[in-house]
């Protein structure tokens, strides 16, 4: 039995993964070819365990089948079985909920989410394929403690963000604070970790919440706010998409500089992000500031 709170990065990339199927940017081309030290990465998901046997998954990526295959600790232990005790959803983005359709084969587990996120799933009849007689959909209020796996306590809290792209109207507020975008606080084995794959803005309250944490997995979508525009792969800034940049005076590196977090790891990294490249100035800046760059299969024990 483990004596640690363990985290396993199932997917370190943002929506679309690395490489993205229709993208010919430098990162995606090199990841396909195996050049420049770039390795393909699947879409955003992570798992935690306190006992080494039962795992809580956070966000059900469209790549979840491959992620479960790639990590032996998540393989079945008997004829019909899974070490996955639960799935918690942090927003209603397709890259965080579509995996529920993949793991639909009559297997019991729990789903935890806010009322707002559950309403998104409930409004689409395709999710009825997930058998409610076996899969319990549990509504969790902000600030409410729940147990996603034995020995593991979780709490959801609001993070500045926006509604999913497919629910956007003419006017989009990117710094909403409510049930549509949440972070997760996890405690186990006397340690505290946070998982925040999407964050549009660092508020004083959010910064204070994470101060002194043992471990934080944080939104690393874009290195600069105009990255998608600069690479010719999009027309929106990072903040317009609901993600604060990694670099700059108002970026996440600067925001964490005085928070005394013991270990900081970027996840949910877009395919265009230059910090994927081992030889880049972006990666050197990230690592010099004390951050690590998450990758598929990365394990952390605290």
Descriptive overview:
The chain has 302 residues and is α/β, with parallel strands linked by helices. The chain has one domain (6-301): Metallo-beta-lactamase, Chain A. The protein is 18% helix and 23% strand. It is built from nine helices and 14 strands. The strands form two sheets. The protein has a seven-stranded mixed sheet. A seven-stranded mixed sheet has the order 7-8-9-10-11-12-13. Strand 10, helix 6 (204-210) and strand 11 form a beta-alpha-beta unit. The radius of gyration is 18 Å and the shape is globular.
Write the layout of secondary structure elements.
Layout: E1 6-11, H1 26-33, E2 45-49, E3 55-58, H2 64-70, E4 84-88, H3 94-97, H4 99-102, E5 109-113, H5 115-122, E6 135-139, E7 145-149, E8 152-158, E9 182-188, E10 191-196, H6 204-210, E11 215-219, H7 227-230, H8 252-256, E12 264-267, H9 281-288, E13 291-293, E14 299-301
Parallel strand pairs: 3-4, 4-5, 5-6, 10-11, 11-12, 12-13
Antiparallel strand pairs: 1-2, 1-14, 2-3, 7-8, 8-9, 9-10
């Amino acid at each position: 039995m483990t004596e640690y709170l363990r985290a396993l990065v199932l997917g370190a990339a943002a929506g679309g993964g690395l490489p993205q199927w229709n993208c010919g940017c430098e990162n995606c081309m090199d990841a396909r070819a195996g050049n420049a030290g770039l390795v393909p990465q699947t879409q955003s998901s992570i798992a935690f365990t306190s006992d080494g046997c039962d795992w809580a998954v956070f966000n059900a990526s469209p790549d979840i089948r491959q992620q479960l295959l790639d990590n032996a600790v998540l393989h079945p232990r008997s004829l019909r079985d899974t070490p996955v005790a639960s799935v918690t959803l942090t927003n209603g983005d397709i890259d965080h909920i579509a995996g529920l359709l993949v793991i639909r084969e009559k297997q019991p587990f729990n789903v935890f989410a806010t009322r707002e996120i559950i309403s998104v799933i409930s409004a689409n009849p395709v999710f009825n394929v997930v058998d409610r007689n076996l899969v319990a959909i549990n509504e969790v209020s902000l600030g409410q403690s729940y147990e996603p796996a034995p020995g593991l306590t979780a709490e959801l809290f609001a993070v500045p963000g926006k509604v999913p792209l497919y629910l956007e109207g003419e006017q989009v507020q990117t710094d909403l604070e409510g049930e549509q975008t949440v972070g997760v606080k996890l405690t186990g084995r006397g340690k505290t970790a946070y998982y925040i794959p999407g964050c549009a803005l660092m508020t004083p309250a959010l910064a204070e919440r994470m101060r002194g944490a043992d471990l934080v997995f944080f939104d690393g979508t874009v290195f600069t706010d105009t990255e998608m525009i600069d690479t010719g792969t999009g027309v929106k800034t990072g903040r317009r998409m609901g993600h604060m940049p990694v670099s700059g005076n108002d970026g996440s590196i600067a925001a964490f500089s005085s928070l005394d977090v013991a270990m900081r790891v970027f996840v949910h990294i877009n395919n265009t992000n230059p910090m994927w490249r081992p030889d880049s100035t972006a990666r050197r800046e990230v690592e010099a500031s004390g951050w690590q760059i998450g990758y598929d299969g990365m394990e952390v024990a605290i």
